[in-house]
Design a protein that fits this description.
By secondary structure, this protein is mainly α. The chain has four helices and no strands. α1 runs antiparallel to α2 and α2 runs antiparallel to α3 (68-98).
Amino acid sequence: MSPAEIFQHARDVFAIGAMAVGLVFVIAGATGVMRLPDFYTRMHAAGVTDTLGAELIILGLIAQAGDWQTAAKLALVGLLLFLTSPTATHAIANAAHRAGQKPDLSHFKPKHPADAGASEGQK
């Protein structure tokens, strides 16, 4: 095998790995949007995991780009996505907060320390 073929195979492995990990993050984000209890946790799942997943997929596509112009265009798309996705997520969450949307904290309330001590003493 020539060094050029080895480099091509290494580039293919890197691209497939980056796209596969990106796909896992995108699926985790979609699952979080469907399964999490309230608006704010769903926004967090969508904003964080989808941004990272899309960036990894774009990185894999850059590795597979045939010429530098395509790679540069993909890098520009990745940069714009990196800047706009968290900003849009914050803007939507801020608008919901200003509109009066309250977080659903009923699922996450810890026991009062007095109640926790009483239940341990009863065991």
